[in-house]
Amino acid sequence: MEAFPWGVVIVGGPVLLAAALVWAKLRAGKATRQADPNTPSDDPSKGM
């Protein structure tokens, strides 16, 4: 039972990081579409 807190840190850290990255990517995409809605999605100016 002594390893329990470290297991939460080791497993939970990457999970929280991945969730934050997905959330940030979704927010950035929505902001980009709102800023210039007429630019096609395959336009090189939009990045990958």
Radius of gyration: 18 Å
How is the main sheet built? none
Secondary-structure-derived class:
mainly alpha
Q: How many angstroms separate the termini?
A: 45 Å
Basic shape: rod-shaped
Descriptive report:
The chain is mostly helical. Helix content is 67%, strand content 0%. The protein is built from one helix and no strands. It has one helix at 4-35.
SSE diagram, text form:
Elements (H helix, E strand, L loop, with lengths): L3 H32 L13
Write a concise keyword list for the protein shown above:
mainly alpha, 1 helix, 67% helix, 48 residues, single chain
Structure in a nutshell:
The protein has 48 residues and is mainly alpha-helical. It has one helix at 4-35.
